Amino acid sequence: MQHYGHYTFPDPGLFITPATDENKAQNVESWLRLREIWFLRVANELSLALSNQHWWTFLSMDHNAQEQRDTKAARRRREVLDLIMPKSNVYPELKARGTSKDPLFWEGKEYPSGELPPEDVVRQILWELYELNFIHELSALDRRACADLDIMDTTKVLERQLSVSACFCPSSFQHVTIPSENAGLAADNFGQRYHFIVALFLVMKSWKGKKPVIFGASEDAVCQFSLEAAKGFEKLITKYYCQQFFNYFGRAAQIPHRLFVVHDK
After folding, report:
1. What are phi and psi of 90, to 5 degrees?
2. Are residues 48 and 66 in the same domain?
3. Neighbours of 62 (CB within 10 A)
4. Inter-CA distances, 260 with 14, 32, 71, 127, 168, Å
5. 98 falls in which pLDDT band (50, 70, 90)?
6. Do residues 71 and 162 both lie within one domain?
7. Better-scored residue on pLDDT, 86 or 92
8. How many structural domains compose the chain?
């Protein structure tokens, strides 16, 4: 994440802000048509991140309209497209789908163009964006905040990636899939969630700067906390993470969300 305050993936709030379902449908459609291409770019290119304004311009753009005028707004739209769409000489096998009127696809199911998908589908799309942004943000923050980490040392970087990946359900760190239940740091069951809270704590123990006194505790000690103490520890860890992200990147952190509405346990 080279640009402070920018987003590797669109902020889910951009899909909620539009006043009408038509505008929301446009934003969702723009993202779904870009989604697979953007995944490929993120996997192959470093520091892909855009400002909220750039994402907003792209998402709200009518990609089927022919740009006729050379206005400031038109030039801004062309600039954003140049930033987002892959270069044909780099990805000759890819064909831009931004002007396509073909149906949209999500999880292998087809949805009509120009219409807002069902609510449960939109919830899945937004959940994925929260999860993707959190994964990339935690990785970016760890690289900046970790004391004595030489990012040119491939072995050390891989070791840190393993530590960060422990904060997520197995395999979700590399490939986010739509879950069948709330899991990981968003698990409904506190006991299941606490396992990942401890993993995040272990990652943050090696960050630079002043920390709460509890960070001097061992892994065994925090694993033996009473339920009440563990819940207080979760709140402290969450607050510390969000504050550190703001300190380094100048905006609020994206955090894991629950896809399913279930009472906490």
Report:
1. -95, -40
2. yes
3. 11
4. 21, 22, 45, 10, 17
5. very low
6. no
7. 86
8. 2
Q: Which parts of the chain fold into alpha helices (H)?
A: 13-16, 21-44, 52-60, 72-84, 119-145, 154-165, 190-204, 219-223, 227-249
Tokens of 28: 């969702």
Which residues lie below 8 Å from residue 241, measured CB to CB, with a gap of 6+? 138, 200, 204, 253
Q: How far apart are CA 63 and CA 57, in angstroms?
A: 11
Q: Report the Cα–Cα distance between both ends of the chain, in Å, rounded.
A: 35
Closest-CA residue to 252 (of 14, 5, 3, 12)? 5
Residues in the chain: 265
Q: Tens digits of per-residue pLDDT, 37-81?
A: 999 899 888 778 999 999 999 999 877 666 567 788 788 888 998
Distance in angstroms (rounded) separating the CA atoms of residues 9 and 115: 22
What is the H or E stretch that residue 109 is in? strand 109-111
Contact 177, 106 (CB under 8 A): no
